[in-house]
Write a structure and sequence with these properties.
It is built from 5 helices and 10 strands; from the N terminus they run H-H-H-E-E-E-E-E-H-E-E-E-E-E-H. The chain is an alpha+beta fold. The strands form 2 sheets. Strands 1-4-5-10-9-8-7-6 form an 8-stranded antiparallel β-sheet, sandwiched between helices. It has a two-stranded antiparallel sheet with strand order 2-3. A hairpin with a 2-residue loop joins strand 9 and strand 10 (236-243).
Length: 276
């Protein structure tokens, strides 16, 4: 598949950095710029006109995704099947990652940030078919604490509903820069940036959001790095979240998040895209 080949060639997202990095479409520069200049010769030769530098390939202006109508999920059962086929398990975050307990959420409910900036589980609204969360961890090792991750796939009935989910995500950080994740976990100093396709290097999703802040936990202390990255492809939203720990670097966290969400984007397109 062309999209999968592109990602595997190095066009992956940089998770957690608030931007999505794309691939340059410019050709390699001439390794010897002087080769374009005229050189005197011993014999009379017609002066050669230097060849102009090749024009860079234009950036795409429309998202390259054609869903097959017959493959679009229409029922809750369709949504659950798609979410389970797409959601990243520990193997997609990298070597050494394992499942956490509980591993999967109930696909009939999802997380909602309430008016007090506390995350709660609530039944799905009518416009959402399924929402599945899978939890993974890179266990503690020596002086390095455990890094914890989650992958979330939400399948909407309509594209417009998925679009609104990302709009709400942006609004939530403005409304709640400090958020209570659970009784023992919270975030602070949250900031976010949304990037539509074609802007900021986003060449892989119709919309994307990057959020970052500090993470605090009764178990692992803090502050540690906290990243949430979300993307939309058609009627499906994909998200990954990473929680840092003592002795862990931003690169470790970003590499794991980038690997997982890139693979999830390949999976959702494989599930829904029309044959070419």
């Amino acid at each position: 598949m062309r999209y999968a080949d592109t990602l595997r060639a190095g066009c992956a997202v940089l998770a957690g950095g608030l931007i999505w990095t794309g691939c340059s479409v410019n050709p390699d520069p001439d390794p010897d710029p002087s080769a374009q200049r005229d050189r005197p010769t011993a014999t009379a030769q017609p002066k050669q006109t230097p060849k102009p530098d090749p024009e860079p390939s234009p950036s795409p202006t429309a998202f390259d995704f054609t869903p097959a109508p017959e493959r679009a999920p229409r029922t809750a059962a369709d949504g659950v099947r798609l979410a389970r086929a797409v959601a990243a398990g520990p193997e997609l975050f990298g070597p050494g990652h394992v499942k956490r307990t509980p591993y999967e959420s109930d696909p009939a409910d999802w997380a909602v940030l309430d008016e007090d900036c506390v995350w709660q589980r609530s039944p799905l609204p009518a416009g959402v078919l399924a929402s599945l969360t899978r939890r993974s961890e890179l266990p503690a090792e020596g002086a390095k604490g455990p890094m914890r991750f989650a992958a979330v796939v939400t399948v909407h009935r309509e594209v417009s509903s998925a679009d609104w989910e990302l709009a709400r995500s942006l609004e939530e950080v403005l409304r709640c820069p400090e958020q209570q994740l659970s009784q023992s976990e919270k975030t602070a100093g949250m900031i976010s940036q949304g990037t539509v396709f074609g802007a900021g290097g986003n060449r892989f999703a119709e919309d994307s959001i990057g959020e970052s802040g500090q993470f605090y936990s009764d178990e692992v202390g803090g502050p540690h790095d906290y990243y949430w990255d979300q993307a939309r492809i058609g009627q499906v939203t994909l998200a990954v979240v990473g929680k840092g720990a003592e002795g862990r670097t931003k690169d470790e966290l970003n590499d794991a998040l980038g690997a997982a969400i890139s693979s999830m984007m390949i999976r959702v397109r494989t599930e829904l895209e029309a044959a070419r």
